[in-house]
Amino acid sequence: MGRQEKTAITPARAEDYPEWYQQVVNASDLAENSPVRGCMVIKPWGYALWENIRGLLDNMFKETGVKNAYFPLFIPKRFLEKEAEHVEGFAKECAVVTHHRLEESEDGGLVPAGPLEEPLVVRPTSETIIGESFSRWVSSYRDLPLLINQWANVVRWEMRTRIFLRTTEFLWQEGHTAHATQEEAMERTLLMLNIYEKLVQDYLAIPVLKGEKTASERFPGAVNTFTLEAMMQDRKALQAGTSHFLGQNFAKASDIKYQSAQEDEVYAWTTSWGVSTRLIGAIIMAHGDDDGLVLPPAIASSHVALMPISKNTDDRDTVMDFTHTLARELGEQDYHGRKIDVEIDDRETGGSRGWDWIKKGIPVRVEIGPRDIARNSVFVGRRDKGSREKESIPRDQFIKTIVQVLDEIQKNLFDRALRFREENSTQIDTSNDFYAFFTPKKPEKAEIHGGFALSHWCGNEACEEKIKTDLSVTIRCIPLNAEKETGRCIACGEASVQRVVFAKAY
Amino acid sequence: MGRQEKTAITPARAEDYPEWYQQVVNASDLAENSPVRGCMVIKPWGYALWENIRGLLDNMFKETGVKNAYFPLFIPKRFLEKEAEHVEGFAKECAVVTHHRLEESEDGGLVPAGPLEEPLVVRPTSETIIGESFSRWVSSYRDLPLLINQWANVVRWEMRTRIFLRTTEFLWQEGHTAHATQEEAMERTLLMLNIYEKLVQDYLAIPVLKGEKTASERFPGAVNTFTLEAMMQDRKALQAGTSHFLGQNFAKASDIKYQSAQEDEVYAWTTSWGVSTRLIGAIIMAHGDDDGLVLPPAIASSHVALMPISKNTDDRDTVMDFTHTLARELGEQDYHGRKIDVEIDDRETGGSRGWDWIKKGIPVRVEIGPRDIARNSVFVGRRDKGSREKESIPRDQFIKTIVQVLDEIQKNLFDRALRFREENSTQIDTSNDFYAFFTPKKPEKAEIHGGFALSHWCGNEACEEKIKTDLSVTIRCIPLNAEKETGRCIACGEASVQRVVFAKAY
User: Fold this and answer.
1) Quick check: B40 contacting A, CB < 8 Å?
2) Which numeric CATH code is attached to A17-287?
3) Whose CA is closest to A248, among A412, A405, A365, A138?
4) Which of B26, B41, B338 to mutate to test the interface with A (most CBs of A within 10 A)?
5) Omega into A11 within 30° of 0, i.e. cis?
6) Does the beta carbon of A62 lie under 8 angstroms from any beta carbon of chain B?
7) Burial of A443 (C-beta count, 10 Å sphere; 0-12/13-18/19+)
8) Entry pTM
9) How far apart are CA B47 and CA B277, in angstroms?
10) Percent of chain B scored above 90 by pLDDT?
11) What are the domain boundaries of chain B?
């Protein structure tokens, strides 16, 4: 029997990945399922991640001239009916408000009363309601471009839900812009995709493939949808942000017209783009290990946990003084526009404290006992290393190098995720190899398969559909700026000019 | 005939205050009514105020140990039924979700489908749904205090709505805390009230009276409600923030129990506290004048508008260079933890530009023409002074004194609002005077009345009710820390120990 290290999360990733995910969410205290079907409660440790994502994106948006606004939660039914594809995509699963009062019934309970003349839908996305405002805000070319973003909750009634990945209610931002020309709208679509790429790669430490969706995977009503695709540790793809070029479709549906400099009446060109709390699911699945969550420092809820250890009352004051001074000095360090965030954990829980912080994924853990203080040093563990790999470091050196250490951890996580993706991505040119790649080796481990297949596709929707039906594999994206290369469609053998990315996906 | 100055807003405040309010909202571009009954669209200039309020409060909350989280938008009907007074207060006007799908009907339209087993209410406030989480999060005294805040949208179905003041959907924060002792919960209730006071007085420049609500004006289910009351320019009161001591009422309804150090099972003591986008209505009504919005610099969407003026193409480059350099240097100035925000308005609209910025309430306007540049000076108008009172100031001096000028404006607005409240508050001791004070002098100007009456009240709900029925006047608060003084109830003549604040209110 080989030596088996005990891990903090049961089951391990290799045993049951979906269940591992749920256990990490629980153990790290990020969020929980609520008594409301499909809705989650985002707990402080999880919400802090969202606050950090929001802060970073909000700054990047504003630097490009985007302004925030807020539009109604409710969308009148007739609005949703405006754009034909859009209604197909969104009317099917939505929360419908039909009454505006609860009244006591004869048996003493409450029953819906005050029926509405027109039902209202809780926004699944806001193109139609924002389009109505845009139609009034835009009249001349001087009013363009209009660059608006909204931070909001949206609701899509989901049958099978999983915390962060697919929930009935989720938090997101949705940007909506209107432009005088097609070129400018397309430029904005790609600019926002690049901002998302910067967020996900530089802060969330998740490498992404940047590409365009095929027609069947587009946002309902869009002309083009651009996407970032990341690989999770079960080798499935997760869409980490999308940016849509809507052409004039929504402008026509919502009557967003402007008078050009030549005094013609022209429909505007619009875009929309969004990321959601789903990104927290991506962080969990890209970096988490069998001991729990692993947070990239640049987005972490907090950076350093200090754990004072005192055996008796005499020690206690000395240890606490040392701890508080250390916390203050760490908290004064600049770390990429934030300060270092420090948690002091003085619970008297013995050994389980350290494991709590490992499970919560904090980048750096510090134990501080009387012997450390005697040597003016601290005992440090890093979340990118093994849980037992701890090191005694002189206190002043620890403070002086903390930013560098966090940067190292950040880089290690990104590199590890990139290596994982590369090891599990492969060019496949025959149908046999393709089917083998996506077929589980063991039937009882249905989730284990090859990863990303870079294969040729003829552009025919029927081929895409066949692969989806046979393997539950979809084209995640047609990579941007990929080399052109002639080849044969993996499904039908017809000529193709470029490889696309096939994968199973969340 | 006296000289009549033309003003930017029609009607003036004295002519028709409610209509003046709506016209200021329009002219300042803060927000607009949406096609969804009772819901508003908050436009960028208005949303920036909310972002500033949120940023300031969020920091102050976090400094006291509060953490942000997020709870579901939907509340199952049975939750709302838990607390008897609460259901009375909130079930009557709420948005009820009864279906989770829209389906095509035979005539091609969409109809609600997929009826829910249990209707869901869109949260009017979250005590019940947050209480459910708290009941699971709290088990030992070591889990307390629990200090949680949520930034969210809420919905209360209102029959008569007015932008910012009373809308079906609005944005707010709601804090919810649980404590081991009554004393600690009460301390927290008052601590949060003091934070609101700091926000409203120091940043919104609105003086407030701090006090306790009478039983009939309490939050449904609360033991005590504390409030900040501000006077608007029509002499009516506006509640600018409330903090509720909930006793053990909600802990019992939601089963929030903890094991004490002595191992007894005890119900926790809870609080809740909130402010909303209503505060933007308070800013408009406390400071606005007949030329439009007047923004206190400490909360302003932006601080300085630069308006370059060039008569011909030769000038243009020089003027724009000068303007951009000025904008950059102003933007480097620290202003109470922010930087100075500068708008460059290079629209070619001639004279109307200046009026646009006056109506939008920006604290400082700067005109920059070739002659100003020749003298290395700028032409400056301040929103706390008359629209024609402009001054030429050497450029470098303008930069050096901008923070001081903003501070002066801030102080002037606060002082003016305080003076107004003092001039329109009076101690009244006879019923005749009291009724005269609240009776409009002219029937066609029903909104003009005396203001705040500081009068004695015996504590009897019947007296409160009589005054409310006769005059639409309510007790806004029983001031905290007011001098005890014996007197006679203004309604019934019975003995009283303290004056309370009577007013008409929003």
Assistant:
1) yes
2) 3.30.930.10
3) A138
4) B41
5) yes
6) no
7) exposed
8) 0.96
9) 9
10) 86
11) 17-287, 304-411, 425-503
Phi (first) and psi of residue B205, to 5 degrees: 60, 30
Q: Distances in Å between the alpha carbon of B134 and those of A500, B117, B187, B191, B292? A: 48, 25, 20, 21, 45
DSSP structural state of residue B202: I
On whether the CB atoms of residues A501 and A479 are closer than 8 A, the answer is yes
Residues of B in contact with A79 (CB under 8 A): 35
Token pair belonging to A275:
């990321």
Contacts of B210 (CB under 8 A, 6+ apart): B193, B197, B226, B227, B228, B477, B479, B480
Residue A194 has a CB neighbour count (10 Å cut-off) of: 14
Beta bridge partners, B271, equal B177, B245
Residue with tokens 């504590």, as numbered in its chain: B459
- pLDDT tens for B11-37 read 999 999 999 999 999 999 999 999 998
Q: Look at the domain B304-411 and name its fold.
A: Rossmann fold (3.40.50)
Judged by a CB distance cut-off of 8 A, whether residue B62 touches chain A is no
Taking the Cβ of residue B88 and every Cβ of chain A, the question of whether any pair is shorter than 8 Å is answered with no
Contacts of A148 in chain B (CB under 8 A): 44
Q: Which residues of chain A does B70 touch, with a Cβ-Cβ cutoff of 8 Å?
A: 41-42, 47, 50, 171
Q: What are phi and psi of A143, to 5 degrees?
A: -80, -5
Closest Cα of chain A to B94: distance in Å? 5
Residue A304 in contact with partner chain B when CB distance is under 8 A:
no
- Using DSSP's 3-state secondary structure scheme, residue B90 falls into helix
What's the CATH number of domain A304-415, 3.40.640.10, 3.30.450.20, 3.40.190.10, 3.40.50.800?
A: 3.40.50.800
CA end-to-end span of chain A: 37
For residue A137, the one-letter residue type is W
Tokens for B209? 């009276």
Q: Is the four-CA dihedral B171, B177, B182, B184 of positive or negative sign?
A: negative
Beta strands A452-456 and A499-503: pairing type?
Answer: antiparallel
CB A160 within 8 A of CB A166: yes
Instruction: State the DSSP string of A39-93.
Output: -EEE-HHHHHHHHHHHHHHHHHHHHTT-EE-B--SEEEHHHHTSSHHHHHHHTTS
The tokens of B315 are what? 């000038």
CA A76 to chain centroid, in Å, comes to: 29
**CB-based burial of residue A399 (10 Å sphere; 0-12 exposed, 13-18 middle, 19+ buried)?**
middle
Q: Which chain A residue's Cα is nearest to B43?
A: A69
- In whole angstroms, give the CA distance from residue B474 to residue B504: 6
Q: Which amino acid is located at B366 in the chain?
A: V
B268 closest CA partner among B158, B429, B137, B463 = B137
Both tokens assigned to B41? 């669209």
Query: Cβ distance A445 to A494 under 8 Å?
Result: no
Peptide bond into A308 cis (omega under 30): no
Confidence band for A201, pLDDT divided at 50, 70 and 90: very high
Closest Cα to residue B476, out of B454, B459, B492?
B454
Determine, for residues B102 and A77 on separate chains, whether the beta-carbon distance falls below 8 Å. Answer: yes
Rounded to a whole number of angstroms, the distance from the CA of A506 to the nearest CA of chain B is 23
Query: Which of A20, A394, B129, B271 lies closest to A8 in space, CA to CA?
Result: A20
DSSP secondary structure code for residue B201 in this structure = I
Q: Where are the alpha helices (DSSP H) in A294-351?
A: 313-331
Torsion A217-A220-A223-A227 (CA) sign: negative
Give the residue from A356, A362, A143, A175 showing the smallest Cα distance to A266. Answer: A143
Q: For B53-97, how does the pLDDT look when each residue is reduced to its tens digit (9 = 90+)?
A: 999 999 999 999 999 999 999 999 999 887 777 777 777 789 999
- Region B425-503: CATH code: 3.30.110.30
Under a CB-based contact definition with an 8 Å cutoff, are residues A86 and A75 in contact? no
- Are the beta carbons of B457 and B464 closer than 8 angstroms? yes
pLDDT tens per residue across span A22-66: 999 999 999 999 999 899 999 999 999 999 999 999 999 999 999
